[in-house]
Design brief:
The chain is mostly helical. The protein has 5 domains: about 1-100, no CATH class; about 135-350, Rossmann fold, CATH 3.40.50; about 420-540, no CATH class; about 540-685; about 690-1045, no CATH class. About 55% of the residues lie in helices and about 5% in strands. The protein has 52 helices and 16 strands. The strands form 5 sheets. Strands 6-5-11-7-10-9-8 form a 7-stranded mixed beta sheet, with helices on both faces. It has a 3-stranded antiparallel beta sheet with strand order 12-14-13. Strand 13 and strand 14 (about 520) form a beta hairpin. Helix 46 (about 950-960) packs parallel to helix 48. The model is unreliable at about 1-40, about 195-205, about 440-445, about 810-820, about 840-855, about 855-885 and about 1070-1079 (pLDDT under 50).
C-alpha cells in the first residue's frame, strides 16, 4: 500500500465516546475544527471500521505512526481496529486514516475538481507592482491593474545571452505543458544502438518537465501566475501553484519535515475546503483523463539543504506519478533545482525585444494610466521608445521586465536618466523615499525607517557593502544571502529598531526580500552593486581609490560594482580617475576593466587615448576578460570613442597573421565594430572554392569536427593516417610565419609524436592509466554526461579525445628515466585529466551537440547556408578553450615546444626562438577537441535521409566503435552496395568500419598518391589533406614526401588501420551511481 499524504490543515480533533471493547460502547466519533464541529455517526464509524478491517491492518498502523505498545496483540482484531480509530482521532489523524482505508469515489473527485476550479478561477487577478515602485493613480487612488491585461508573452530558449535573444527563442504557452517533449536525435540514436529505443520513446511520451530560469526581475513569477490562469480555464486540467518558500516553511515542525510531496498538493485542495483531500488527490492522480500540472515558484529562495530535500521529494513524486507535468522556476543560482539528468529541461527567459518593450509600454499606458484610445496609448508608448533610444544604457536595462516597469513608472514623472548608474540611483530613491508615505498611511507597528532620507540611503549602501565583503570571500556576482541575525548586526548602527528597519526594507520598500530559510538578500543584483558603489564613492578618497581598485580588481565579480563606482566619480571629477587608469593599464586583467569603464562613457579623452593605443597588441593575447570588455563596447553609445576604436583596429589588421586576425575579428564582432578582417585571416576563411583555399583552411580544424564550407571534403576528416596529422601541423606553422628552413628540423619531432597515436604499446599503458583514473574519481561529471547524452556517446567521445590528447601530447616515454613507463603515464593522465575536465568538458557537451555535430550538416549543404561559414570564421576563437590552452601550455611548453626549439637550434648557428612558436603551441593545445572528434560527430549526428554520404559514414563510424556488431556489418554492406557516388567513399567507409578488403585499401592509397585522378574539389582534398602537400605564402607547393627525403626519414603511410578501441570502464561509474541511489 502506498503511503497516503498526511493533511491536517490546522484542524484539532478529539475522541468523544465510550471506550472500546463492547459493542454498545461504539456510539460516535466527534471531531471539531476551527470553523465548527462535525459529528461522526454510528454508520460512518462502522464504514470506517469496515474499511480498516478489510485493509492491510499492520501497514495502516505503521503509516499512522502508532506505537507498538499501544495495541494489545491479545485483543480481537475488531477491538484493535477501534483502538486505531481512537488513536487517529485523538492525534488529529482521522483524515489520514480515512484516506488510507476509504478511497474517494469518482463522483467525489469530480465534484472536488469543479469546486477547486471555481475557487481558483480568480487567483492572481491583479498585476503585482510591489517590487517596482508606487502604483499609478487614477483620481488620487491607486489603479488596480489586471494581470491578464498587462502580461506580455515571454520567450524561452535553452541558453541565455543578456545582450541578445537566442534565434531558438519561442514563447511557451499553457498548451506546451500538456504535450510530450521532442526526442533529441542523438538520444534516439544512442538508445537504438543500445537496444533501448522503445523504452526511451515511452519516457519521452511523458508531459513536460521544465526548469524555468531567469535573472531577478525577468518575469518568472508573472509567467507562472499567468500560465496558472490559462490552465485553470481548461477542462480536464488541474493546475496547482506552489511557492517553494511556503513548502519549506512547513519543515519547521518535525511532522511537516516528514511529509511527502503529495502532502503539499493535498494542502492546496484543503485550502479550497475540499473534504478528505488526500483521498481525493490519490483518485485524481490515478485518473489518466485528468492532466495535473504542478507549478513551483521561487526555487532559488531555498537554501542548499532545503533545496536538496525538496528536489528529493519532488523526484520521488514524479517517479510515482510520471504523468504529472512539473514546472519549476528559479534564478540561475538556484543550484539544487532538478537537472536534465532527471528529465527536467532548462528553459531560460530571454531578454525583452523592442517589440516586447513596445507592447508592455502600450499596455501600461492603456491599463495603468487609463489612456483608452489606441492613438493615445500607442503615441505615448512611441514617446517612451524614443526616450529609451536617447538614453545610452536604458535600452539594455529595459530587457528585464522589472526594470522596464520601473522605468515606465519613472518616465511618467521625469525624463529617463541617460546612464545606468543614474537609473539605478533613481529607482532606489523611488523605492526608498516613496515608502515613507505608504508607511505613514498603513501605520505598520513592526516596521521603522529613519526620517532623514540621505541617512537612510547611506545606511542601506553600507549594508550592501558589508554584505558583499563579508568574510572576505568572492561573491561570484550573484545576490548574496545573509542570515537574519547577521543582517541585523551588519547594520552597525546605534538604531534601537534595526530589526524593524530590516522588516521595512522587505515589506514596504521592497529593496530586500526574505527567503524561506530565514535569510535575506537584495531584490535585484544591480541594486546591491549600485549601493556598494555608492558606499565606496562616499568613503574612498585620494590614494584609497587606487588601493581599493587593486584590492577588488582581481575578483571579476566586482567589476560591475567598480564600473558604477568610477561612473559616480566621473560625473563630478573625472580627473580623479587618471591615476586609477594609469595603474589599471599595468595589470593584464585591469586593462580590460579600464576598457569597460571607458565604454560606459567615463574618463577623460586623454585617458581613453592611452588605453586605446595598446588595444591591438593586447588582443593578440586574449582572455575572457577581453570578451567581457568587447561586450561592453557592443552596447556603448559613445560614437566618438567607437570611431577611434575602429580606426585603431583597422590600422593594426594589415600586419596580423590569421590567428591574431581571428581574435581581432571575434572581438570586433562582440563590440559591434565594422572593421575589415586581416588579409591573412581572409585567406583561410570560407568559401573553400580554390585549391589554395583548401590547403590553407586546414588550420581551422582545431575549431570544428567538420570542414568549414568543405562540402564532401568534410568526410575526409576521418581519413586514418599519421600523414594527415603531420600535414595539418606543418601548414599551421607556415600560416603563423614558419619558412621552408623551419620545417625540416620540425618534421622528425612531429613524426615521433604522430606515430605514437598508433602505438600498441602506448595503447595498453594508456588504457590502464585511464581506467585507474576513472575508477579513482568520484565520477560526478561522468555520471552527469551519461545521464544527459547516453552511455555510448560519452564512451566514444572519451575514447577519441583521450587517445588524441594523451597519445599526441604526452612526453615520449624514453625521456622519463626516473620512473617506470606505467607510473609516468599514470601521472600524465591524472594531470591532463584534471585540466581537461575542469576547463573543457564541463562546458563541452552542449556545444558539441549544438555546433560540432551540426557542422557536418551545414557545411555539407553548400549554397544553402552561405552565411553560416562566415559566422564560423567570426566565432572561431570561441571554439577554443583558452583556459585549457594556458594551463596545458605550462606543461606542453616544457616538452613539445622545447623539442621544437632544440630541433630548430640544431639547424641554426644562432640560438633564437622563433616568434611564431608560442602561437603554434597555443594553437596545438587549443585544438584538441576539433581534431579529435570528427568520428564521434559523424557517429552521433542526425542527418537528413537524402544526404547519402553522411548517412553512409554515420554507419561506418558507428561500426568502427563496435567492430563486432553483425547488425552494423549488414547495414554497411547494403549502404556501400547502394551508394551512387564515387567509389572512394564506399571503400573508405568499409575501411573506417574495420571491414576493408586489400583491393579497397589499394584503391584508397592509389587515389591518395595520385589525387589528380579525381575531379575537384575532391582532388584538392586528397592532395592537401590526405597526401599532405604544403602551400606557402607565395603559393609555392612542397610535397611532404620531399621534406621526408631531405630529412632522411621514411615518409608516413598514406593509409593506416584504425588502432584498437580503448576500453573505457564507465560501467563502474554508473553502477556506483545506481548503488548510491539504491542506498
Amino acid at each position: 500500500m502506498a503511503r497516503a499524504p498526511r493533511v491536517t490543515a490546522g484542524r484539532s480533533r478529539r475522541w468523544s465516546g465510550r471506550g472500546p471493547g463492547r459493542g454498545d460502547a461504539i456510539s460516535q466519533c466527534e471531531a471539531t475544527s476551527g470553523a465548527g464541529g462535525r459529528s461522526m455517526t454510528d454508520k460512518e464509524l462502522l464504514e470506517l471500521l469496515k474499511g480498516l478491517l478489510s485493509s492491510q491492518f499492520e501497514e495502516v498502523v505503521f503509516l499512522l505512526g502508532i506505537p507498538p505498545a499501544y495495541l494489545s496483540v491479545r485483543e480481537p482484531q475488531a477491538v484493535r481496529a477501534i483502538e486505531v480509530i481512537r488513536y487517529a482521532t485523538d492525534n488529529g489523524l482521522r483524515d489520514e486514516l480515512e484516506d488510507l482505508v476509504q478511497p474517494a469515489r469518482r463522483g467525489d473527485a469530480t465534484t472536488a475538481v469543479e469546486s477547486y476550479r471555481a475557487r481558483k478561477s480568480e487567483a492572481f487577478v491583479r498585476w503585482d507592482l510591489r517590487n517596482a515602485g508606487p502604483a499609478p493613480t487614477t483620481d488620487s487612488r491607486p489603479t488596480q491593474t489586471r494581470l491578464d491585461d498587462m502580461y506580455i508573452p515571454l520567450r524561452f530558449a535553452p541558453r541565455f545571452d543578456p545582450f541578445k535573444v537566442s534565434p531558438l527563442a519561442r514563447s511557451i504557452v499553457a498548451e506546451d505543458l500538456l504535450q510530450p517533449p521532442p526526442l533529441a536525435s542523438h538520444e534516439l540514436d544512442s538508445a537504438r544502438r543500445a537496444g533501448r529505443d522503445h523504452a526511451l520513446r515511452e519516457a519521452h511520451a511523458l508531459p513536460r518537465r521544465w526548469v524555468v530560469i531567469g535573472v531577478a526581475g525577468s518575469g518568472k513569477t508573472t509567467w507562472m501566475r499567468s500560465t496558472f490562469r490559462r490552465l485553470i480555464e481548461k477542462a480536464g486540467v488541474l493546475p496547482v501553484f506552489l511557492e517553494a518558500r511556503a513548502i519549506a516553511a512547513t519543515w519547521r515542525s518535525s511532522l511537516g519535515a516528514e511529509q511527502p510531496f503529495d502532502h503539499y498538493l493535498a494542502g492546496a485542495l484543503a485550502e479550497c475546503n475540499i473534504a478528505r483531500p488526500g483521498a481525493i488527490l490519490g483518485t485524481l492522480l490515478a485518473d489518466s483523463s485528468l492532466k495535473v500540472v504542478v507549478l513551483i515558484d521561487g526555487w532559488d529562495e531555498l537554501g542548499d539543504a532545503q533545496g536538496d530535500r525538496l528536489r528529493e521529494r519532488l523526484l520521488e513524486f514524479s517517479g510515482a506519478y510520471p504523468g504529472v507535468a512539473i514546472v519549476v522556476s528559479s534564478r540561475p543560482y538556484g543550484a539544487t533545482y532538478p537537472a536534465r539528468a532527471e528529465m527536467f529541461r532548462a528553459q531560460y527567459i530571454q531578454p525583452l525585444s523592442d517589440d516586447d518593450i513596445r507592447m508592455l509600454a502600450q499596455r501600461f499606458q492603456r491599463h495603468a494610466h487609463g489612456l483608452a484610445q489606441p492613438r493615445e496609448y500607442e503615441a505615448r508608448a512611441e514617446e517612451f521608445m524614443v526616450a529609451l533610444a536617447l538614453a545610452p544604457n536604458a535600452r539594455s536595462l529595459a530587457s528585464t521586465a522589472l526594470l522596464l516597469t520601473m522605468m515606465l513608472l519613472l518616465w511618467h514623472q521625469a525624463p529617463l536618466p541617460g546612464r545606468g548608474h543614474r537609473l539605478y540611483h533613481a529607482c532606489l530613491r523611488n523605492m526608498l523615499i516613496y515608502r515613507v508615505t505608504r508607511l505613514s498611511e498603513e501605520k505598520r507597528d513592526r516596521q521603522w525607517r529613519p526620517d532623514d532620507d540621505e541617512e537612510l540611503f547611506r545606511v542601506v549602501a553600507e549594508l550592501a557593502y558589508r554584505l558583499q565583503t563579508k568574510d572576505g570571500k568572492p561573491f561570484h556576482r550573484t545576490l548574496l544571502i545573509c542570515p537574519w541575525d547577521e543582517a541585523v548586526q551588519l547594520l552597525k548602527t546605534e538604531w534601537p529598531q534595526r530589526e524593524n528597519f530590516l522588516r521595512w526594507l522587505i515589506a514596504s520598500a521592497g529593496v530586500l526580500v526574505d527567503r524561506a530559510d530565514g535569510s535575506v538578500q537584495f531584490s535585484h543584483l544591480s541594486f546591491q552593486e549600485h549601493l556598494v558603489a555608492h558606499h565606496l564613492f562616499t568613503t574612498c578618497e585620494g590614494d584609497q581609490r587606487i588601493t581599493m581598485m587593486l584590492e577588488h580588481m582581481a575578483d571579476r565579480s566586482w567589476w560591475e560594482t567598480l564600473r558604477q563606482w568610477a561612473a559616480l566619480i566621473g560625473d563630478q571629477r573625472p580627473e580623479k580617475l587618471t591615476p586609477v587608469f594609469d595603474k589599471l593599464r599595468t595589470k593584464p586583467d585591469g586593462y580590460w576593466l579600464a576598457g569597460q569603464i571607458f565604454a560606459d562613457g567615463t574618463g577623460r579623452a586623454s585617458d581613453f587615448a592611452a588605453w586605446c593605443a595598446e588595444l591591438a597588441s593586447r588582443l593578440c593575447d586574449p582572455s575572457d576578460a577581453s570578451d567581457d570588455c568587447a561586450v561592453a563596447w557592443g552596447s556603448c553609445k559613445q560614437s566618438d570613442r567607437l570611431a577611434i576604436l575602429r580606426d585603431t583596429l583597422a590600422a593594426a589588421c594589415t600586419s596580423l597573421h590569421w590567428l591574431d586576425g581571428s581574435r581581432h575579428a571575434h572581438w570586433c564582432k562582440l563590440a559591434n565594430l565594422n572593421v575589415p578582417r586581416a588579409a591573412k585571416f581572409r585567406a583561410v576563411e570560407p568559401p573553400i572554392n580554390t585549391p589554395q583555399a583548401v590547403a590553407r583552411s586546414r588550420v581551422l580544424f582545431g575549431g570544428a569536427a567538420s570542414w568549414p564550407d568543405g562540402d564532401e571534403l568534410a568526410v575526409l576528416r576521418i581519413w586514418p593516417s599519421t600523414r594527415v596529422a603531420i600535414g595539418i601541423r606543418l601548414q599551421s606553422a607556415i600560416s603563423l610565419g614558419a619558412g621552408p628552413a623551419d620545417l625540416l628540423p620540425m618534421l622528425p619531432t612531429l613524426l615521433v609524436r604522430a606515430n605514437r597515436l598508433w602505438s600498441g604499446k602506448d595503447h595498453a599503458l594508456l588504457e590502464g592509466s585511464v581506467g585507474r583514473w576513472i575508477k579513482g574519481s568520484d565520477g560526478t561529471l561522468i555520471r552527469q554526461q551519461v545521464g544527459e547524452f547516453g552511455m555510448s556517446f560519452v564512451q566514444d567521445f572519451v575514447r577519441d579525445t583521450v587517445r588524441y590528447l594523451f597519445g599526441y601530447f604526452a612526453v615520449p616515454l624514453h625521456e622519463e628515466v626516473l620512473e617506470s613507463e606505467q607510473a609516468m603515464m599514470d601521472r600524465v593522465v591524472q594531470e591532463f585529466g584534471r585540466l581537461f575536465v575542469r576547463t573543457v568538458v564541463r562546458e563541452f557537451a552542449e556545444r558539441f551537440e549544438r555546433d560540432f555535430i551540426r557542422d557536418f550538416t551545414l557545411y555539407y549543404i553548400r549554397g544553402v547556408v552561405r552565411d553560416y561559414p562566415r559566422e564560423f570564421a567570426d566565432e572561431f576563437p570561441r571554439y577554443f578553450s583558452r583556459e585549457f590552452a594556458r594551463d596545458f601550455g605550462q606543461y606542453f611548453a616544457l616538452h613539445f615546444t622545447r623539442e621544437l626549439e632544440q630541433a630548430l637550434q640544431r639547424s641554426r648557428s644562432e640560438v633564437v626562438v622563433p616568434s611564431w612558436l608560442p602561437a603554434l603551441a597555443f594553437l596545438e593545445a587549443s585544438s584538441v577537441v576539433g581534431r579529435a572528434t570528427p568520428r564521434v560527430a559523424l557517429a552521433h549526428g542526425s542527418f537528413p535521409k537524402e544526404m547519402f554520404l553522411l548517412g553512409l559514414f554515420k554507419l561506418a563510424c558507428q561500426a568502427s566503435f563496435e567492430p563486432g556488431s553483425n547488425f552494423l556489418d549488414e547495414s554497411i554492406q547494403r549502404s556501400c552496395a547502394a551508394f551512387p557516388g564515387h567509389p572512394l567513399w564506399p571503400a573508405l567507409a568499409r575501411h573506417m568500419a574495420r571491414r576493408s578488403e586489400p583491393v579497397e585499401r589499394a584503391l584508397l592509397e592509389n587515389l591518395a598518391r595520385h589525387p589528380e585522378n579525381c575531379a575537384p574539389p575532391l582532388s584538392w582534398g586528397l592532395q592537401y589533406y590526405v597526401r599532405g602537400d604544403l602551400l606557402f605564402d607565395d603559393d609555392s607547393i612542397v610535397m611532404l614526401d620531399e621534406l621526408c627525403d631531405r630529412c632522411n626519414v621514411p615518409p608516413p603511410p598514406l593509409l593506416e588501420d584504425l588502432p584498437p578501441e580503448l576500453h573505457i570502464p564507465l560501467d563502474h561509474v554508473i553502477m556506483r551511481r545506481d548503488l548510491m541511489r539504491a542506498t
